[in-house]
From TrEMBL, chain A:
UniProt-listed GO biological process terms: carbohydrate metabolic process
Purpose: Is involved in generating a small heat-stable compound (Nod), an acylated oligomer of N-acetylglucosamine, that stimulates mitosis in various plant protoplasts.
InterPro entries according to UniProt: Glyco_hydro/deAcase_b/a-brl, NODB_dom
Protein name according to UniProt: Chitooligosaccharide deacetylase
GO molecular function, one term: hydrolase activity, acting on carbon-nitrogen (but not peptide) bonds
Family: Belongs to the polysaccharide deacetylase family.
UniProt cross-references to Pfam families, sorted A to Z: Polysacc_deac_1 (PF01522)
Signal sequence annotation: none
UniProtKB/TrEMBL annotation, chain B:
SUPFAM superfamilies: Glycoside hydrolase/deacetylase (SSF88713)
Protein name in the entry: Chitooligosaccharide deacetylase
GO molecular function, one term: hydrolase activity, acting on carbon-nitrogen (but not peptide) bonds
A GO biological-process term: carbohydrate metabolic process
Native source organism of the sequence: Caulobacter sp. 602-2
Domain NodB homology: residue ranges: 77-190
Family: Belongs to the polysaccharide deacetylase family.
Superkingdom of source: Bacteria
Function: Is involved in generating a small heat-stable compound (Nod), an acylated oligomer of N-acetylglucosamine, that stimulates mitosis in various plant protoplasts.
Amino acid sequence: MQADPNLYDHWPYRDRPKIVWPGDKKLAFWIAPNIEYYEFDPPKNPQRPGWPKPSPDVVGYSQRDWGNRVGHWRLMELLDKYGMRGSISLSVGLLDHHPEIIEACVARNWEFFSHGIYNTRYSYGMDEAQERAVIEDSIRSVEAATGQRIRGYLAPALTHTEKTFDLLAENDFWYTCDLFQDDQPQPVKTRTGKLISMPYSLEVNDVITYGALSMSPWRYADVLKRHFDQLLEEGEKSGTVMCIPLHAYLVSQPHRIRPFEDALRHIAGHDEVWITTAREIAQHYRDHYFDQTVADIAARGLATPGTGFDHAAA
Amino acid sequence: MPLPDEHLIYPHRSYGMDQDRYAWRPVTQRAPIALPGGAAVTAMIVVPIEHHPLNPPGKPFKHPGAMVTPYPDLRHYTTRDYGNRVGVYRILDALKAEGVKATFPINADQLERLKPLVEAILAEGHEIAAYGLSTTHIHWGGLDRETEAAWVAEVRARFDAAGLAPRAWLSPARQQSFATLDLIRAAGFDICLDWEQDEVPVAMKTDAGEVIGLPLSNELDDRALMIDRRQSEDEWAIQVLEAADYLAQDADRFGGRVLGFTLTPYVTGQPFRISALRRLLSGLGEIGVTAMTASGIAR
């Protein structure tokens, strides 16, 4: 076990080289509906059960099913109204369970990235071959169903191994949503490839805000507006990224969806914003700012040897 | 089997405190004091710079903010690290905008890694304090004195190596052993931010000389209020302002007071919370509250 993952170098937020998003935009905004499948009776990972209560957890299970049957469609209509495309954090198993959802997203040119096979299967305890199998299954299955080659990853239930990021980079992933250290992308230190950390704004994730922080629907909308206003202001100096990670089983609840719409209206009402997908942000960053960041970190004397979980590699 | 006899024996049952670090002194018997600068209320703003490793031992308990999920808990590692690379700069900007100076306790094992931050803190006229060796070096009653003395010596050595000579000490997790005050004083720390027994500085006895205790409010701790108790940033800010305003209104009776409160970078430094800090700092100015660093208050 290591104290410091060494997945990225320390890089102070102040005085970084400037990022400008396409169209001279200051803030790249993306929205990440998590479209998840939670199994009724998952195998028990030794480090964490699939459900906090004994299976079958019918309340937890059926609320998430409601999210796919009802909630997803409500959220999709709302995003249509504001011309926003989702970047879907997908439980890849859902391709088989609910193809209607996939078809509707494909028809809207939404992006898919992998969130594991099921959100009840964790990475804890996997060896390299097992984790590689999940990643390769994700690439193959999404491509077969949608024609899209996925470029992003968010580990199922935010569970990782020391190998996760090297495996993503080896498989030509462009971005990971698993690291929350920054409001701008940053190169991830992998053995091969060109992987970046994509800001996924866990602090404004609806699971955290409604759940862990007990926010009311109106309070959440206010938080989103404040978060956006601050990052937009800072984006003048150097382009920032804001993501709203969502779960239809939470945000689409009838008592929450209208206050949430207020926040979207606020964001859509600003023209200094690039409303886009994670893939497009990653592509632009990799093409224009990846090398600049590596050079700035080196010039400041902050580059450290090695790669993720391997401090000695250099 | 009843409890041993010692449970009904009260060796310290007499007037005053049951420890000899400082004497009992009710507020009614304290002459009003004038703080440096003469303000009725002096804010002591404390910005704790702490690193939370992926593999904390969790002994004797987990430091607030430590990892939660099985290894590798990158979720909590990176959300805490966000504070030291992004959030703290928002706090520095907000302090600079109001011309307010603060005290930044920093884990000694982070001085090298966070060197650009240390430089920014100093360049903007703030004070650096020691914050133990790391969040996994928790001082507590079960620690033998030799080990604890070696930790404190190591902290002093790391600060020396970084060209820093802090006077003030904050213990990791604000936890002490019975010997901590003696050991930090012997290592040259004569200000401590762990205790909050009064609203004015309190001189505490150690076997190496005096340590000035400066009050840091636990009940206004930003992490506790906004994370543990789930209060909004506006609710937090208005409570700090209420405290400052309350203390100011009876300054004639009680003299100058210190209001110490924390700004935790990974909490208050979030984009959606930072405007509340700006309003809090300007609000303090409006009611005539000045801010000073720990050494400025202790003199």
